[in-house]
Write a structure and sequence with these properties.
- This protein is of the alpha/beta class.
- The protein contains 8 helices and 5 strands.
- The protein has a 5-stranded parallel β-sheet with strand order 2-3-1-4-5, with helices on both faces.
- Helix 1 crosses helix 8.
- The chain binds P1-(5'-adenosyl)P5-(5'-thymidyl)pentaphosphate (T5A).
- The site of P1-(5'-adenosyl)P5-(5'-thymidyl)pentaphosphate (T5A) has 26 residues, from helix 1, helix 4, helix 6 and helix 8.
């Protein structure tokens, strides 16, 4: 269940590779700005200089394979820095925070993709976030092959994007399990991202309109 800290609202964007998070988060930013909402756009892993350095370590390919538990701890180390120095102070000041990926990504990639124990992820979540959870999560869902084809059309593949297709199928299943288990008054909204951009954006704005009307 979502919980608000301070006056700002915490909105997260989730989904697998190439699903359109970066594209659509900019639309949401413009929409919220048009409502005169004080807003911070940020991302994970990253969002502070230190956390961005951890992001580089996580995404860059290297000769030394990263141990899975080490990867999980790096994700949460970056998150602790991001939350304590950027996200929580902004929410407490009444600023809305729009974040490209958050802890659902950890359940999907480290839990689903890597197969790490979700109890361990939940323990770290409690330590790092305490009671903080997103108020609204837009989960963009897409067939894995279609998402990867969009992502690979753009740039060199990073360490995660170079994983096998089975890895991304497990990521998607883990996302769907989380989105579907949290049904009554869910803060999750599933958006079919396989549709054309115009349709996807219309559906996202419908969710945002309703959310803003409830909270402004
Ligand atoms: N990670 C992250 C973890 O393992 N654990 C964690 O806890 C966290 C927080 C971060 C990586 O870190 C991992 C997961 C990730 O692998 P990232 O850059 O945030 O990496 O994530 P990516 O998914 O790699 O981001 P991308 O930029 O690849 O994907 P986006 O942002 O979802 O996609 P976007 O908007 O760039 O769009 C991709 C292309 O598709 C087009 C766009 O124009 C663009 O060219 N497009 C569409 N085309 C047709 N129809 C539509 N509806 C379209 N929407 C977008």
């Amino acid at each position: 269940m979502s919980k608000q800290i301070g006056k700002g609202k915490f909105i997260t964007f989730e989904g697998s590779e190439g699903v359109g998070k970066s594209t659509n988060i900019l639309l949401v930013k413009e929409f919220l700005a048009s409502k005169n909402i004080d807003l911070l756009l940020t991302r994970e892993p990253g969002g502070t200089p230190l956390a961005e350095n951890i992001r580089t370590l996580l995404l860059n390919k290297s000769d030394e394979a990263i141990d899975e538990t080490c990867e999980l701890l790096m994700v949460f180390a970056a998150r602790a820095q991001h939350l304590n120095t950027v996200i929580t102070p902004a929410l407490n000041a009444g600023t809305w925070v729009l974040c490209d990926r958050f802890t659902d990504s950890t359940y999907a990639y480290q839990g689903g993709g890597r197969g790490l124990d979700t109890t361990l992820i939940a323990q770290l979540e409690n330590i790092v976030q305490k009671t903080l959870k997103p108020d609204l999560t837009l989960y963009l869902d897409i067939d894995v092959k279609l998402g990867l084809s969009r992502a690979s059309a753009r740039a060199d593949l990073d360490r995660f994007e170079s994983e096998e297709i089975d890895f991304f199928e497990r990521v998607r299943l883990a996302y769907l399990k989380r989105v579907k288990m949290d049904l009554p008054n869910s803060h999750y909204h599933l958006i079919d991202a396989s549709e054309n951009l115009e349709r996807v954006q219309k559906n996202i704005l419908a969710v945002l309109n309703e959310f803003v009307a409830k909270h402004l």
